[in-house]
Amino acid sequence: MKSPDQARALVEDVVARARRAGADAADVGFSAHAALDVSVRLGALEDVGRSETEDLGLRVFCGRRNASVSTSDLAGAALDDLVDRAIRMAREAPEDKWAGLAPADRLLRGAPPQLDLADRAEPSPEALKALALEAEDAARAVEGVTNSEGAGAGAARAVSAIATSHGFAGAYELTRYGLHASVLAGTSGAMERDSAHHSARHAAALESAAAIGVRAGERAVARLNPGRVRSGAMPVVFDSRISGSLLGHLLGAISGGAITRKTSFLLDCLGSRVFARGVDIADDPHRPRGLRSRPYDGEGLPVSPTPIVTDGMLETWLLDSAAARQLGLEPTGHAARGGGVSPGNLAMAAGKVPRDTLIGEIDRGVLVTEVIGQGVNLVTGDYSRGASGFLIEGGEIVAPVSEFTIASNLKDMFAGLTPASDLAYRYGVDAPTIRIEGMTVASG
């Protein structure tokens, strides 16, 4: 795999080739990825896989026309062909008055922030196998677990580089280590499956294999013999395993593309109260070892911690340069390579109410631990998804329930949302347990 210095030299070279070939402007992104994954099932090795990929993407501008091409062939002659093809395509493309490189005066200058995103650990296949076996053994040892879908451990290393024709070039390396287990509880005809996993930038920060396995086993056993919930309007509690999905819907609604196309249910809500008072949501791309940390965005702009919702008020859109030009605003440092936007480490701040209290205040409701389907309309905000979880009665979690639907509108859900105090940074997009009042629950 190329080093960051080699990756940076490569993208600078391709930019220079594009300019020599007649492009008015160009930018290049390169990514390399190497991964080792080991999976086991029922105490035996099931698979060992290693993958290595390298991809380069080039965007060229000829006047107001532009085109993008990509390749995994990095030989010199292939790169010349790539440049030639991109320029010919751009000259035939329609004009786009909003497209272009990021503003030159906004580019990251000087040394990028040091975020400690790469670990030197290189676990062997044998070490990964031992971790996966330990996780599966711990899960299978939970009383009530009757079968296994397997466990796995993996290690990955990646290098990313960007260069532009107007003065930016950068590269950085990152690593990721992961461990998961998935098991079944019960007997044929009444079996339930569940899982647990954890990922970290540094191997030493991974949760123990035994803890992951026990959690997977206990989750599967807790789902046994699910009942049905009586339909009606009631509070719905989103477990922290899935509460971050609500932030994903927020991101889709405040992305520059949705705003410029006028396809967002939050189109007229900038600067207004969207969430309940006390709710804060922020993006922090500078968190050391964060799963979504980065030193700059996909256009070479610096990134920084950004308040998105403060005391319930929507503070900003997430804009790349093209959307910012169209809206007459400034880019926010959230551009994704290849188009669109992407945040760093996004999180809803912990609330003041403990999780047990949040649930204990409910006379009748449901705790949702899994959502199914894609029934979310970001144009209207309508929300309807299949779900499973647990029935809440008299402030207590009393029984598993499945095959029901939860429905509302995201505007109402955001406005009626109460976060618990149990925020943990596990996924890169994180939220605490969340209670939402008055959702419609319908039994399947």
UniProtKB/TrEMBL annotation:
Give a Gene Ontology cellular component term annotated to this protein. cytosol
The Metalloprotease TldD/E C-terminal domain, residue ranges? 231-442
Which source organism? Answer: Hephaestia caeni
Instruction: Provide the GO MF annotations for this entry.
Output: metallopeptidase activity
User: Which residue ranges does the record assign to the Metalloprotease TldD/E central domain?
Assistant: 122-224
This chain belongs to which protein, by name? PmbA protein
Name the Gene3D superfamilies on file. Answer: PmbA/TldD superfamily (3.30.2290.10)
Signal sequence range? none
Q: What lineage, starting at the top, does this entry show?
A: Bacteria, Pseudomonadati, Pseudomonadota, Alphaproteobacteria, Sphingomonadales
Q: Which Pfam families does the UniProt record give?
A: PmbA_TldD_1st, PmbA_TldD_2nd, PmbA_TldD_3rd
Q: Where is the Metalloprotease TldD/E N-terminal domain?
A: 26-90
Family as reported in the entry's similarity comment: Belongs to the peptidase U62 family.
The Gene Ontology biological process terms listed for this entry are: proteolysis
